[in-house]
């Protein structure tokens, strides 16, 4: 059987500027009346430039770099969320993304219904999701609120539910963005423990983090990204030292 891998070859990814270039009626009128300068046209943002990366089974890859370097974009590209303009993306293995945790939640539906929707989206069958349901409710500590529409949840309750669902179905490739700020201190400790379990089970881990110590502890490979390109690839200690020296 083919092993899990992530392959990106010469990937170019742009954020289109037309969203920001649109002018409102108010801006048009103000420009005509010369009360405001006409808006300058913004260029598309190229977030990944001829980006090539291979990640093999057994690798735990840390992605480090400055704000705006392209780290989150890279993670979302691996997840297949963003369409690439050119190049090749080839991923073998079941992906579990632990970012945008509440993506796909329906606010009018109850917690219990959302467990089913999200569970199916994560690749579970109705039977598997039903089997996991109680464990998810217990982990999220939602009690009777599980049968209330999630519109009535506090932000912490929502994060706990999202985290409990997203981590209930294991995946072969685990994509993580930063530390997950999940609920209060006691929940955070529980969440951290669950994360460690998931990370050790995953066949491939890709972790974006500003916490260099976490990268050093968890990863066996690191890349430093700057302006949409890899500028250093190697052992976490070496890449972190290079990054620190370049600050
Ligand atoms: N939705 C978007 N629309 C337009 N440009 C974007 C969008 N998201 C990111 N960008 C741009 O793409 C580039 C890479 O952003 P990205 O979020 O991948 O960086 P990052 O390394 O994850 O940053 P941070 O450490 O601050 O989270 C930046 O120039 C950013 O301004």
From TrEMBL:
GO cellular component assignments: membrane
Superkingdom of the source species: Bacteria
One Pfam entry name: ABC_tran
Keyword annotations from UniProtKB, A to Z: ATP-binding, Nucleotide-binding, Translocase, Transport
UniProt-listed InterPro entries: AAA+_ATPase, ABC_transporter-like_ATP-bd, ABC_transporter-like_CS, ABC_transpr_TagH-like, Bact_Polysacc_Export_ATP-bd, P-loop_NTPase
UniProt keyword Metal-binding, yes or no: no
GO MF terms held by the record: ABC-type transporter activity; ATP binding; ATP hydrolysis activity
UniProt keyword Nucleotide-binding present: yes
Domain ABC transporter: 33-247
Family designation: Belongs to the ABC transporter superfamily.
Name of the protein in its database record: ABC transporter ATP-binding protein
């Amino acid at each position: 059987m083919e092993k899990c891998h992530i392959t990106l070859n010469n990937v170019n990814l742009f954020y289109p500027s037309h969203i920001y270039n649109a002018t409102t009626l108010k801006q048009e009128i103000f420009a005509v009346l010369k009360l405001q300068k006409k808006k300058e046209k913004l260029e598309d943002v190229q977030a990944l430039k001829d980006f090539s990366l291979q990640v093999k089974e057994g690798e735990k890859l840390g992605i480090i770099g400055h704000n705006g370097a392209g780290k989150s974009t890279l993670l979302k590209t691996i997840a297949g969320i963003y369409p690439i303009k050119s190049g090749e993306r080839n991923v073998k293995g079941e992906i579990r993304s632990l970012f945008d945790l509440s993506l796909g939640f329906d606010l009018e539906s109850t917690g219990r219904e959302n467990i089913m929707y999200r569970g199916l989206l994560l690749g579970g069958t109705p039977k598997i999701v039903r089997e996991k349901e109680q464990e998810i409710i217990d982990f999220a500590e939602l009690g009777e609120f599980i049968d209330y529409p999630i519109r009535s949840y506090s932000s912490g309750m929502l994060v706990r539910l999202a985290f409990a669902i997203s981590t209930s179905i294991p995946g072969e490739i685990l994509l993580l963005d930063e530390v997950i700020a999940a609920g209060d201190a006691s929940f955070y400790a529980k969440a951290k423990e669950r994360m460690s379990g998931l990370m050790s089970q995953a066949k491939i881990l890709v972790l974006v983090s500003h916490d260099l110590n976490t990268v050093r502890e968890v990863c066996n490979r690191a890349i430093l990204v700057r302006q949409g390109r890899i500028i250093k690839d190697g052992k976490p200690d070496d890449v972190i030292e290079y990054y620190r020296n370049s600050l």
